[in-house]
Amino acid sequence: MKRYTFKVYPKGLGREVYRVFTFSGESTLDSLCIEILGQFDFIYEHLYAFCMDNSPYSGNEDMHFEYQNELGETETDIPVKKLRLAKGQKFTLHYDYGDDWLFVISTQKIEDVEEEEPPKLLKSKGEVEQYPDWDDEEWDEEE
Questions:
Q1: CB neighbours of 141 closer than 8 A, spacing ≥ 6?
Q2: What gap in Å lies between CA 140 and CA 23, rounded to an integer?
Q3: Tens digits of pLDDT across the chain (143 residues)
Q4: Helix (H), strand (E), coil (C) string for the chain
Q5: What angle do CA 93, 54, 71 make, to 5 degrees?
Q6: Environment class of residue 139 by beta-carbon count within 10 Å: exposed (0-12), middle (13-18) or buried (19+)?
Q7: In 3D, which of 135, 123, 137, 132 has the Cα closest to residue 14?
Q8: Which of 6, 51, 82, 131 is deepest in the core (most CB within 10 A)?
């Protein structure tokens, strides 16, 4: 089995805000998205794509919708190991097309392990808010 070490950061903030964590190659892209969002305390409620060429809107995204590949799997329901990542390879999680969050994912290490392990946070720096201009009082008034 493979275990990956990823460094993930919001595009443009790689030195100020990032997370480094391990992730099982047996887990899916869907699970990777959920893990990244959880690492940054984001709410999982929007569409997303993994841009394997590290370029959003290039047409090379694996979209989060019910599109099935030739194996009958939804594109984001495939194990990370099937991506055939290489050390140093970068790709992007494009999350919430309205707010356009771009998380760069850098593959720092790939190891062989005996058994699947849950993700483990190795290093964390800085914070970023999903909705920095969110006003709870405004929301309460609308209800």
A1: none
A2: 38
A3: 999 999 999 998 889 999 999 999 999 999 999 999 999 999 888 888 888 776 666 665 544 333 445 565 556 778 999 888 999 999 999 888 788 899 999 999 999 999 999 999 999 999 998 887 765 555 555 55
A4: CEEEEEEEEECCCCCCCEEEEEEECCCEHHHHHHHHHHHCCCCCCCCEEEECCCCCCCCCEEECCCCECCCCCECCCCEHHHHCCCCCCEEEEEECCCCCEEEEEEEEEEEECCCCCCCEEEEEECCCCCCCCCCHHHHHHHC
A5: 70
A6: exposed
A7: 123
A8: 6
Q: Which residue shows structure tokens 């990032």?
A: 18
The label of the residue with tokens 């964390």 reads: 124
